[in-house]
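Sanity check

After download, print the first record. It should look like this:
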Amino acid sequence: MANAPQAVVLLSGGLDSATALAIAKSQGFAVHALTIRYGQRHQIEIEAARRVAGDVGVARHLVVGIDPRLLGGSALTDDLDVPKGRSADEMSQGIPVTYVPARNTIFLSFALGWAEALGSADIFIGVNAIDYSGYPDCRPAYIDAYQRMANLATKAAVEGAQRVTIHTPLIEMTKARIIRKGLELGVNYALTRSCYDPNSEGLACGQCDACLLRLKGFSENGLTDPVPYQQQESTSG
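Expected structure tokens:
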């Protein structure tokens, strides 16, 4: 793949980003994975991202830290309760406290800068507008707007050398369909982590929005999620 086009993939270590990474690679891109450490409570995802990048095989994997004070005011970064046990209807109403202010805008900006430095016009992000928790920066309208901005903001685009494309291969997929696609591409979901509120041993809570959506996706495929959950620990003991 010496002459393969390059792409930057935002890789959190969760189920969706791991699938987006596999899709990018299956499309023939030389993948550069970017993981952002922003003070998230579920930092176990960062180690998961390293595992996924190593398993899938990437040209390079960068883990970049930013000052966590930039992204406060969220249950994922501050001492706020993570919502648990919400129904699908509840998840579809309003923007939850797990929303991180401007997170995808910041992440995409890092990815855009790295992509331009690499001479790449392609960025992949695993946002989803079907099975998601109401985040405004996961919607197609947001991605379209960001892509337009990117093509006004970068030297390569303004000079006509290339046009930036923000790839969102999962945006209209259900979680079940995402999992099926990932399995077709050989994604090892046992390496991923999605929980917003894991315990000190890294076991998923099984009740936050991320866990419930993930469990639903595996269940709809007639499968058991391969990652460990706290309930399993308590019942097996």
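If your output differs, re-run the checksum step. Summary of this record's structure: Residues 233-237 have pLDDT under 50 and may be disordered.
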